[in-house]
Inverse folding.
């Protein structure tokens, strides 16, 4: 082995080190911190995710009504109203996130989402409790049964029909009615919103 070969062997380690450094530089996509994960992304984009959740829940409710022929009772309609209002707040948050006021209004809007979802969870719990006969439902919601197609036609003509009863679960899955599942989902969205609002947006 010549002196020149010894020099070449000595240069192997720096080259390996350089290759390793180059490889690690390409391991993380540009603009993303290696410590950023799905949780950080969810926090950063929570108004959009909350809006999508509201759209999904409203779409599911209307699908049950349209395709499942399950007419909503008074409390069902009030729970939909919560998603309409909360979804509007989320939409405002998405729009403002593209403006100069994004950082100023982000936390108040997300905490407002948390309050909206929490109110929805309480309303759904009240509805589920009425179905389980833990407490009476509202008097305006205790008389009727399921609305038929003829009832809907009569309603369009101006006639008054009895609303479906709030204290009878017409659909149950894994022991929970639609109101019960809505309570669980709304509570989860409220907790997630509170977490996103109290956590700083990742840089």
């Amino acid at each position: 082995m010549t002196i020149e070969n010894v020099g070449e062997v000595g240069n192997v380690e720096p080259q390996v080190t350089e290759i390793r450094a180059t490889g690690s530089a390409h391991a993380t996509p540009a603009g993303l911190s290696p410590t950023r994960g799905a949780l950080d992304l969810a926090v950063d984009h929570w108004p959009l995710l909350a809006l999508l959740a509201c759209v999904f829940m409203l779409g599911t409710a209307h699908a049950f009504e349209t395709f499942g022929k399950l007419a909503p009772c008074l409390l069902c309609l009030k729970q939909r109203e919560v998603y309409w209002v909360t979804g509007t707040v989320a939409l405002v948050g998405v729009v403002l996130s593209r403006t100069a006021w994004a950082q100023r209004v982000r936390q108040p809007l997300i905490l407002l989402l948390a309050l909206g979802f929490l109110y929805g969870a309480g309303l759904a719990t009240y509805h589920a409790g009425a179905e389980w006969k833990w407490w009476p439902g509202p008097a305006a919601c205790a008389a009727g049964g399921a609305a038929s197609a003829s009832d809907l036609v009569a309603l369009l003509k101006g006639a008054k029909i009895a609303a479906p009863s709030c204290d009878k679960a017409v659909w149950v899955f894994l022991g929970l009615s639609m109101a019960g599942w809505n309570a669980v989902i709304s509570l989860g969205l409220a907790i997630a919103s509170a977490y996103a609002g109290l956590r700083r947006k990742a840089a």
Q: What stands out?
A: The chain has a mean pLDDT of 77. Helices lie at 3-10, 12-25, 38-44, 46-66, 74-96, 102-131, 149-156, 178-198. The chain has eight helices and two strands. Strands lie at 172-173, 176-177.
